[in-house]
Structures are given as C-alpha cells and as structure tokens.
Amino acid sequence: MSPTDAIASDVTHATPRQADGTAAPSRDAQQAEKPLLQVEGLTVEFRTRRGTARVLDDVSLAVGRGQTLGVVGESGCGKSVTALALMRLIAEPPGRIVAGSVMFDGRDLLQLPEAGMRRVRGNRISMIFQEPMTSLNPAYTVGDQIAEAVQLHEGTSRREALARAVAMLQAVGIPAPSQRVHEYPHQFSGGMRQRVMIAMALACKPDLLIADEPTTALDVTVQAQIFDLIHDLRERTGTAVMLITHDMGAVAEMCDRVLVMYAGRVVETGPVAAILGDPRHPYTRGLIACAPGRRIVAPGQPLEEIAGTVPSLLERGSGCLFADRCTQVQPRCRAEAPPTVALDAQRSVQCWLQVEGAA
Amino acid sequence: MSPQPPGSTGPSASAATAATVAATAAASAATSGTSGTSGTSGTSGTSGTASIGTPAEAALSPWREAWHVFRGNKAALVGLGLLAVVILAMTFGPGLYGVEPFDIAAGPFTEPFTDPAVWLGTDYLGRDVLAGMLIGGRATLLVGLSAAVLAVGIGITVGALAGYFGGWVDTVLSRLTELFQVLPSLLFAMVLVSLFTPSLTTVVFAIGIVAWTGTARLARAEFLRLRHMEYANAARAMGAGPLRLMLREILPNAMPPLIVSASLIVGAAILFEAGLSFLGLSDANVMSWGLMIGSNRRNILECWWAVTFPGLGIFATVLAVSLIGDGLNDAFNPKLHRR
C-alpha cells in the first residue's frame, strides 16, 4: 500500500457534512459556486486600559475548497487574530467581534451557539499553532491526544481511535508510529511534535486547516519539511489550508491566493502569481523586497527593510495607516482612508495610488 | 524499514493497531522522507529517518517518573514504612489483641511494662492503653483522610472555577476563600461541631470546611497559569468545552502541587481531629488517640503513659505523612530532579 493510498482511504472526505457535523445531501452545485469559507467585513476590537483597539478592521477573505490561502504581514498585523476570530476563540472580554460574518459551508459561524461551534472546531476546521514544544499536553501520550480528538467528534471506540492515531502518525511521516503512539510529547523533537500536531489537526478530516505560522519555532531545514508535509497532505486529502506565515518563499510555493494584511486591514489580495509578480501596494512591495533569498545581496550590503513599525491600533487616524512608512506617500493618504480598488475579478488593493492610476 | 514483528508493538496496542501498522509500515519511510522537494516523496529521505526512528527509551509517564524519584528518597520511604506500620497495626491489631478499649482491664493507674496483661498500662479508669492505641488510630486516620479528601475536593473545585473562568467568578470565589481564611480555623471547627451532635461525620465536615482554603488558592494559581498554555488553546481549537478543558487538559498538569498540598492537609487534619477530641468535641463513643489524651489530661502527672503513647501515635502518623509529602514534593518538582 503506498502512502498516498493509505491517506486517500483514510483521510479524504467521504460525504460533505454540514457545519454541525451531520451528513448533508449532495450539494456539488453549490460547492462549485460558493467558496468553503467566506469572511465578510470581520471587525474585532480589544478593550485595553488605554482605550479600545480595533485589531481587525473590515477584513474580508475567501478560501475555496481544497485551496490554499496565504496570509502575510508583519507581527501585529492581525493575522493570528483573524484565524482566532473565525474559530471564535478570541477571549471575550477583552476581545469582541464587533461586526462581520464568517460563512463556512453555508452557515454563519458567528451565529452558531457555542455548542455548535465546538462541533466545528477540530472537526470541520482545525488549527495548528506556532509553538509545537508547548502545544501538546505533557500529561498524555501523543496517541491519547490524537485519539481523544477523534473520540470527541466521531464517538468511535477507543480502539478505533487509537488505530486512527497510528495511521495519522504514519501519514505525517513519523517512523515506527505504533511505538511512538505510546510515547509522551517530551520524547519528540520540535519538528516531530509539529508533525504530531498536524496529525491531530487532520485526524477528523477537516475541510479547512488553519496553520498559524507552523514553522516559526523550527529549524530552517525542518521548516521546509513541514511546509512540504502540509502541501502533500493538502494534495492528498483536499483539505483547504489557510497558511499564516512570514515566509514569502513558502507562499510562492504553496499558496493559490495570498492576502496581505497591515494593521488589521487587508491591503492587497489576489492570486499568488499576480501579487508576487506585480505587487501594487507599497507595503506588499516592501514585504517582497525584504524576503531574503530572492536576490543575492552583495556581502556587506544590508537587506532591505521597511522603515518604521506597525502603528498603535489605539488611535487610528483618519488616513492610511501605512502613510508614515510609505515611500510613495501623498498628501491625500494622510487625510482620507484609501478605498478598496478591485483591479479585476480576482484582485483588489487598498491604496490611493491605484485610484489615481485607474482614474 | 521492514514491517515490525507483532511482538514489538506495545502491550496495550490493539490487534487492529498492529494490523494497520503491518499494512502501512513500509510506507512510513517514504512519507517521512519528503524533505527538500515538495510532492515527490522519494527515496532520498529514507536514510535520514533511521536516526529519528529509534526511540531513546521506553515511554515513561510523568507519574511513573515521579515514582522513580520518590523511590530514591530515603526519608520518604521511611515515612511510607512508618505509615504502613501504623495502618497495619490499627487494621489487624485490635483483632489480634482482642481487648475492648472501653472495658476495664486492670486496676486504674497500672504502670506500663509492669503487668504483662496490660503491657502499656491502664488509664485512670483501668482501661487498657494498648487496646486504645491499636483501635484509636482508626478514627484518627479515617477522620484525617476523609477530612483531607473533602478539603482538597472543595479546594480544587473552588480554585479551578476561579482560576479557569476568572472575571467575576474569580472575584466572588476568591473573596469567599479569604473569608474562610480569616476565620480562626480551630474555633470555627469547634463552633461547627458544637452546632451539631459531635460524631465522626460532623468532625470530618468541620475539618473539611476549615481546611480547604490553601488548596483553593493553589489550584486557582495553577489553573490561572495553565488555562492559557498552548495545549489548552490547542484543545479549545479541537472543540473541547470548559469541563473537558478543566478536567482533562488542565487538572492533570496541576496535580503535582495539589497532591503535595493534599498530603500536608492529611497531617493537619489528623492534628485537628486530635485537637477536637482533646477538647471533648468528638464522638465520645468512638475511641481515638485524641479522645485518649483528652480524657486523661487531668491525670497527666499521675498517669503520663495514658497521654504519652497516644501522643506518640499521632506524632508518628503525622511525621510519616509529612515525610511522604516531602518526598512527593521532590518527586513532582522537576527543578529538584537533578540535584
């Protein structure tokens, strides 16, 4: 049996399920039109001692079935908050989802009761986190943890769940899975733990996998392996992926579409090739220029950088939030927030330069 | 990488698991070797997996590891032995000795080691001190353990809810804990016992109700610390609800300090029971070490043995429990592992 077969028989989606996990009649017609996940106008605020910070401002995005969406941006741009908000995992208080909708497979997740949402988490939408070293519970064997997720959502017997755990460890490339399933997290290296996390996330055959900087805490060589693994599993299982990352190289290799976030806003979105080949927003251009390895930099020459830092979200001025760091800033940018300009059916940019270019 | 012989799978691995492994073992190497180029799971990575694949040691659960350290602690083993002696003596002693502790066995104030029939002497009523010693430990230890279980149960529940939910729940429960903390505990326990008829049950409740505050604060601190651990977030993202998170994810990791505190509470509860009995606030129909000390306290100068031997019993038991508690503390505290 080839690894691909092992996965295909075990992990592919047999029947489409509704957001609460019940079986649904075939709806291929709808699937073709509607993306799996469609977020509209998601706005999240956090109340702090110094005032209310609008951490996400009118974020819209879509992930098609089996597609990979890359979400890029500096730290503090709202990438992780976006992921947590659509899983409804933002701590309230201090956080609050102020506006927006999260349509997932025909349902608005923001309207689901908490119990219904719990059936979605881990079952239809799974998440893997940055820190593989601490994301596994030290008190249980890895097999217990994977099996528990399966039992929780599918009500299978312990035996079947453990068998699934072994199959999943196998699928994510952990050698001797039938032994290692009985081992504790401290007996695994960082890269291996992230593989276990991926195994756990995919054990219930989710439709969407959210990977929140899954390689940030890992060695560079292991990073490549983990990206390859996610890529492989997506190919084999058809799970859609939302990949949050700093790594423009990974985005170029793995993603179908890319979303560039800055200070809680979507500043540019579109197909990967179009955006990397012809970035329109000055911030996107800056990010691509910063990515090391795209050009050889002469020894002694500094890498490029975007001057300044992400502004405080407590006082959002009236203008473009990137204005202070933008190399092509214009008077209008500081006065008025730029509109979102659709360049074509696939692409949009939030920048005044594009408005004037179009006019 | 060849399919493993069935015998090499762990003892708890089910037959189904073993079958799955046999079917897919050959695929393992290929899947894990995807380093470098994406998609093409090729042969290049196969050699690299051998070093990762060999497990360094047999899986040691955190509990087994703690036991391992505990076993190396001589003082803790002495405590364990001492406690075993006490438990054995009070379990089988009365049956073997066969003297009723409330019966008059000889003349009053018989000195110890003089009359072989009443080896530890008699008290002011002529009751056999040894008989009381053997059976009196039952009530003392039973009350101590039950009260400790109750106190730890209340403490963990209150602390877990406060630490996990935070906000107003935490405020209310923390103030409640403080309220109980500022009450003088022995006085409060005395009030509780005297409100109801003194019996073993009321004594257990009285001690349980005054002794839970420390555990509650400890549990609250642990839950506060652990509820935002990545694995708790990961479990939340896997669809776990609050109850599951508290019981399955957080509690096992909060247990080590709580177990240590529980062992200390056992010792404290035994002393409490003795104290209440001494003051006459215990069941007068059940012989206990505290009751022996209490009923003989007026004759302490004429009859030192009727007070000293039960006192030694309490001392030995509390010492044993404390030594075990210290051992548990060392066993569960990873920073002390590498001394």
Walkthrough of the structure:
The complex is a heterodimer of chains A (359) and B (339). Chain A is α/β, with parallel strands linked by helices. Chain A contains 14 helices and 12 strands. Chain A starts with a helix and ends with a helix. By secondary structure, chain B is mainly alpha-helical. In chain B, helix 5 packs across helix 8 (200-211). The longest helix of chain B has 37 residues, at 129-165. In chain B, 44% of the residues are buried. At the A-B interface, helix 4, helix 5, helix 6, helix 7 and helix 8 of A face helix 1, helix 2, helix 10 and helix 11 of B.
Q: Give the full name of the CATH homologous superfamily of the largest domain in chain B.
A: MetI-like
Q: What is the strand tally of chain A? A: 12
In sequence order, what are the helices and strands of chain A, one letter per element? HHEEEHEEHEHHHHEHEHEEHHHEEH
Task: Classify the oligomer.
Answer: heterodimer
Low-confidence stretches of chain B: 1-57
Low-confidence stretches of chain A: 1-31
CATH topology of the largest domain in chain B: MetI-like fold
Roughly how many Å apart are the termini of chain B?
A: 40 Å
